[in-house]
Each structure stands twice: as structure tokens, then as C-alpha cells.
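Lab notes, practical 5.
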Amino acid sequence: MHQLTPPAAPSRPRAARRLRRTLAAALALVATSGALSTLAAPTAAAAPACSDVEVLFARGTGEAPGLGVLGTPFVRSLTSALSDRTVTSYAVDYAAESSQRSAGPGATNLTNHLTATAAACPGTRFVLGGYSQGATVVDIALGIRTGTTTGTAIPAALEPRVAAIVVFGNPLGISGRTIATASPTYAARARDFCATGDPVCGGGSSFAAHLAYRTNGNVTEGAELAAALVRSTTVPVPTPTAPGTPTPSPTAPGTPTPAPTTVPTPAPSPTAAACVRASTRAHVDAGRAERRLGVAYAVGSGDRLGRVSSFVRASVQQTGDGWERVLSC
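Output from the prediction step:
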């Protein structure tokens, strides 16, 4: 889906006022239609002690506590895509107030939960997600200044544990930025979805577009992208020394010290290449494919993926110089 190119970033006070007005109007529409309040999901159930992957998702403004209208299907789709791994979820605990000032405390809650879980579960990877103000929660947790409010960012030592970041309707777009452009540290693992005409992230005028992510395929596409990123890399977990290991006795005087045996270091296993299944339009928008006369071709290999459409899907795998088509991910 194409993301509108916003105008040059206005001054910070002006941008903040514009953001508040835009989000207030969006919230008023939601309150009138009842779209979010009636569809909000209950708070996620308590997670097991440790899992392979944990999703931390922040709901949008005005939604009832829980994963929200996008977080619930996002977690469901990611769990299906990672059926060979255990996936749990955590609904970021914050007020989601219309003033947007609750985003900072939300970021602090996200960071505190991630830090505690990372300490208790050394093998757990994290996927971060958010919708609307929830995307701002994620922005702040990644250390991106938004001008709305402030909160605690994820410690640098835990940055490698974050496998993927997927947000929808991110207000950061009003200033002409995405997570990828605002945070070089997380750029390769982040994807902002902004529907055409969405005034919250793209400067459009269709508030209905801000409510369309649940049905326009972006949630499923985002989950598939996150799954591919989870599979593409791993975080090594240090093996602790077993307690009670005896200390070797010193060599008796006059006894020759045997020369150490040289053991060849095994070559590191190559990191699995990223594989993404998505619509041909999404591949073009993400730079994995290029459009020629209405047809998408994989960047690098030139493999034909099909006509550019939100309904035609194809799987591509990353190579050394681009992407190539594969049967499935």
C-alpha cells in the first residue's frame, strides 16, 4: 500500500498542535461510530513463564484495555506463522487518552515489562507493535523523540532481543518520519503501515482510512513480515558454567607442561535468509520488487511475481544482491 509523502516537517509546536487536532477528530469519529469500543479485545491472558517469542502490543486511542482491534488479530496471525514456536503476548498497560500524553507512560510500561521478561527468559525474542497512539508508545520506547510526551526507552543492551517492530497509523508520519528513518538502530527490523488517505500518519483527509487496517490486509502482512524477521536471526544465549566445577590443580614443580592441543574453530553457521510472503503491491512498496508496466519483478533476480495488486500474493527470499521468488516461506 502506498504511503503518502508528507510535506516538509512544520515547527515542533505547530506539529504538536496539528497532531492533537487530527487525533482528536479521529477519536471523535470512533466514538460516534463505536468502531473501537465495540470491537476492543479483552486483556491478554497471563503468559507462561517463558516463550520463544513475546509480542508487546499497544492499543489505539480510546480502545478498551487489552491488545485492541489490531493487536488481537496481529498476535493470532503471528502465532499461526510461527506454529513451530511458542508465542505469547502482552497488552501494554496505559491509559490511551485522547490527549496523547499517556503514550510516554505507556512506553515506560512496555520497557519495564520487556526488561523484566528479558532478565527472566534469556531465550525469548520480542516483537513490538502498536496502533495509532500505540505506535507512539513504541516510538518512544525505541528512543524516538515525538514531541508529545516522554517515557523510558529500551536499554541498549536489550536492543538485539527485539526481532521485529510493526506499527499501524503511526502519528510520527505527520512530521514526515517513520521508525526506519528516525531510528537507524532499528530501521532494518521496523515497518510502518500507513493507509492511503490516513490523516494520522500520512496527512490525508479520510478518517475512515485510519480505521481500515483491520480489514485491508495490513495486519496479516505485518505479522508475516515479523515472522520472517524472527526466523532470519537468532540471539546467542551464553551457557553458564556448571556450579561445583573443580579448579585444576597446579602442575608440580619440574613437571613439563603439556602443549595445548589445537582444536579448529568450527565455521559459524550462516544466518537464514529473510523470506516474506505478501501481496505484490506490498513487495513493490517495501522495495523488494519493482513495477514494470503494471507487473512486479523481484529486485535483484528479476523474477516475475505477477501483476501489481493487493490481492496477488507471492513469496520472496533475500539473496546477496536482492530478492528471488520462492514457492513458499
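Observations recorded by the TA: The first strand starts at residue 53 and ends at 58. Residues 12-33 form the longest helix (22 residues).
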